[in-house]
Amino acid sequence: MATFHDTPAGGIPEEARILISGGGPSGLFLALDLASHGIPSTVIEPRTTVDHTRPRAKTTNARTMTHLHRLGLADALRRASPLPVDYAQDVIFCTALTGPAAHELRRFRNAFQLNPGRYGPQPECGQQVPQPVLEEVLRDAAAGNRLVTFLTGWSVTEVSGGQAPYAITVSNPSDERRTITTDFVIGADGGSSAVRRSLGIRLEGGSAALSNISILFRSSQLASAVTLDPAVQYWVVGQDAAGMVGPMDLKDTWWAIVQGVDPDREVGQEEAGAMVRSLVGSDVDIDVLATDPWTARMLLAPEYSRGNIFLVGDAAHLNPPWGGHGFNTCIGDAANLAWKLAAVIKGWGGPSLLASYGDERRPVAARTIRDAAANGKALAYHFADPGLTSEGAAGEAARQAAHRALAVKQSEFDSLGLVLGYAYADSSVVVPDGSPVPAEDPIRYIPSASPGALLPHVWLEDATSVYGRLGQGFTLLVDAGALGRVPEAEGFAAVLEAGARQGIPVTIAAVGPADDGTPLSEVWGTEAVLVRPDQHVAWRGSSPGAAAAALSIAAGWPASQQPPSQDPASQDQFRSTRVDAVIP
Fold first, then answer.
1. For residues 53 and 216, is the Cβ–Cβ distance under 8 A?
2. What's the start-to-end Cα distance of the chain, in Å?
3. Helix locations, 128-238, DSSP H
4. Burial tier of 39 (Cβ tally within 10 Å: 0-12, 13-18, 19+)
5. Of 87, 89, 450, 452, which is least packed with CB atoms within 10 Å of its CB?
6. What are the mean pLDDT values of the chain's consecutive 10-residue runs (584 residues total)?
7. What is the DSSP track for 355-368?
8. Residue 163: exposed, middle, or buried by beta-carbon count in 10 A (0-12, 13-18, 19+)?
9. HEC profile of 296-312
10. Could you tell me the pTM of the whole model?
């Protein structure tokens, strides 16, 4: 594991191509994603170490795991996780965890896309892992990447300049100050973002009426005392306390969240231990390691960028944690922005490409906040009923009623429609085809190759993922079964010429069928799809000419403004390095 220390003042550079304020998950992921495109960046982070007593996010969903897979980090995160996927996959609502008062009320299976074995909707399933562990995996990757300069012990305090280049003031706890000049500034510095404040942008929205308290604790007795099946979360519907309890590892560390606490109330360690015992239902040993009071926020920035200054993650939006979407939405921001920055810096990204970042990602955050806020209106204490622990027919009737009422919580744990079903259909860098876009649903995910949607995932006949056929830039996927059957399909090699002429990286791959024999044209609704570097569909169809035109638009060049042609030498280099598969 990499070790970081306060960077000496003499180690602060005078210039940076891209400066990222904040080395949390979104900032470090962005830096690593940029590096995958060959773009260097400098990350400024005040913390030299991560705090394991504040686990915060614990859900890394299937989409984020697939982003990490793309960077070669998914396996590293699974190895580092203290809770393997095959330990448990369910969320259980109950009256207690231990003793005769413990009754299961409802179970949500394979919550948060936790599926041992091969997962269908994405190359990777979800993973339960504390945020500090994830951050350490990203820090290790950054330390080993020559294109990432990670400077700890410093904070961005001010951004000056109406346009690039910008002057960035950074300071350390000793009040030493340095100025870094940069062409691009990324605010990934959390809800109190200094970058956002420098722009005069305020988050808009509200907060929950009641607060919560997170409790990290050890117990040598709890694991053996639990009388319910293993679960990643137990939601306890109790009279004295209501909230959640879950294992942090396979040893003796656990976490709890007590819901509906007065925000002005101070909770000491003794009371925190009593709260945990009330949740679990017995007098087990409790060693409170840390408490962390918090209030759910529903906040969204009215704009995500000005000039070459961009807001990412919590600097742009604060989501309630219900459903585990907040951190994952942050990673989605970074993945969307990284390839667009790389494209502009390399010269093939057009004038509308960077503006599309906010146009695409802000609606995703708004939708996520709405769904999480709706889940927050049905927390554990809302279902409390003194009859739930009663014996006999009355108790059974109360528990059956609770089982039915808890159906409203399904979208919190079975949210594939929200995780994978978002689309950028209205984006200026997506070419619509006039077909209906699948209706938004937080639960039901309808795989679709409609332009703007996430490329539908399939496992191919050779047991590999179709995502594994995607190149570093754009990829034109052609149904291998369409070759010869559809005369136009064989002409798609002309797209390579268009990419070479315009300097836009594109590969062509003939793929299919799926492992069940389904032709990919049936999955996509057409013979070919143009896929962006972030795995979203930019265009679909069967015309080589339309595909070539779509390539320019997807790279940010309006139809009326084509990118400048590249010189012949660069075209030859492009041909030799960009072709993964050539259509015969």
1. yes
2. 48
3. 131-143, 194-199, 222-225
4. buried
5. 87
6. 87 96 98 98 97 91 98 98 97 94 95 95 97 97 97 96 94 96 98 96 91 95 97 88 93 93 84 94 96 93 97 95 89 98 97 97 96 81 82 92 91 94 96 90 96 98 96 95 64 87 94 95 96 98 93 90 56 34 32
7. HHHHHHHHHHHHHH
8. exposed
9. CEEEECCCCEECCEEEC
10. 0.94
Q: Which two tokens stand for residue 318?
A: 């604060």
- Residue 506 is classified by DSSP as E
Q: What are phi and psi of 76, to 5 degrees?
A: -60, -40
- Which alpha helices (H) appear in 188-240, and where do they start and end? 194-199, 222-225
Question: Does residue 558 have a cis peptide bond before it, meaning omega lies within 30 degrees of 0?
Answer: no
> 3-state class of 243 per DSSP?
strand
Q: Give the per-residue SS3 of 434-488.
A: CCCCCCCCCCCCCCCCCCCEECCCCEECCCCEHHHHCCCCEEEEEEHHHCCCCHH
CB count within 10 Å of CB 201 equals: 21
Question: What is the spatial distance between Cα 387 and Cα 473, in angstroms, rounded to a whole number?
Answer: 59
Alpha-carbon gap, residue 30 to 71, rounded angstroms: 11
Is-cis flag, bond preceding 165, omega within 30?
A: yes
Q: Are 412 and 440 in contact (CB under 8 A)?
A: no
